[in-house]
Amino acid sequence: QVQVVESGGGLVQTGGSLRLSCTASGLIFDDYAMAWFRQAPGKEREGVSCISGSSTSTDYADSVKGRFTISRDNAKNTLYLQMNSLKPEDTAMYYCAAARNWRSRHYCRSSNEYTYWGQGTQVTVSS
Fold first, then answer.
1. For residue range 89-99, what is the model confidence (pLDDT) as tens digits?
2. pLDDT tens, 20-59?
3. Residues facing residue 3 across a β-bridge
4. CB-based burial of residue 82 (10 Å sphere; 0-12 exposed, 13-18 middle, 19+ buried)?
5. CB 89 within 8 A of CB 62
6. Between the N and C ends of the chain, which has fewer C-beta atoms within 10 Å?
7. pLDDT, position 49
8. Which residues is 10 bridged to in the sheet?
9. How many distinct helices (H) and strands (E) make up the chain?
10. DSSP string covering 84-123, please?
11. From residue 42, how far is each of 3, 85, 92, 118 by CA, in Å?
């Protein structure tokens, strides 16, 4: 069965960096588009970033553009999110998700596109 597992979260000060990782098993990783979502208490889930199976297409939420970078290593079945210049408003549970296809890149940060989800990793940014 498909398993998606995130790691790398933690507590960091404002301006610091973290790198999240997500490993997926039970699927042909190259065939799946991937994304990072986040959800803070009392807020709706937000699509942070997405990447196509071949890494040729990526997208970012405006709130993280220029600070976060999504990447993947298909040989390791692993997705990454490098987060720099972290702000307290980045505090949330971060989730990794896999999709066989997107309707289009326009929808790549929509949670409805994704079939498989991890349990999440907590990121807390202190002020």
1. 999 999 999 99
2. 999 999 999 999 999 999 999 999 999 999 999 999 999 9
3. 25
4. middle
5. no
6. N
7. 98
8. 123
9. 0, 11
10. -S--GGG-EEEEEEEES--S-GGGTT-GGG--EE---EEE
11. 27, 24, 10, 20
For residue 105, pLDDT beyond 90:
no
Q: Above 90 in pLDDT, residue 103?
A: no
Q: What is the dihedral of CA 26, 111, 39, 127, to 10 degrees?
A: 100
| pLDDT greater than 90 at residue 102 | no
The dihedral sign for the CA sequence 98, 29, 91, 106? negative
Which amino acid is it at 68?
F
Distances in Å between the alpha carbon of 26 and those of 4, 23, 87? 9, 10, 35
The whole-number pLDDT of residue 21 equals 98
First and final CA of the chain: distance in angstroms? 40
Which tokens sit at 49?
């970033």
- The pLDDT of residue 91 is 98
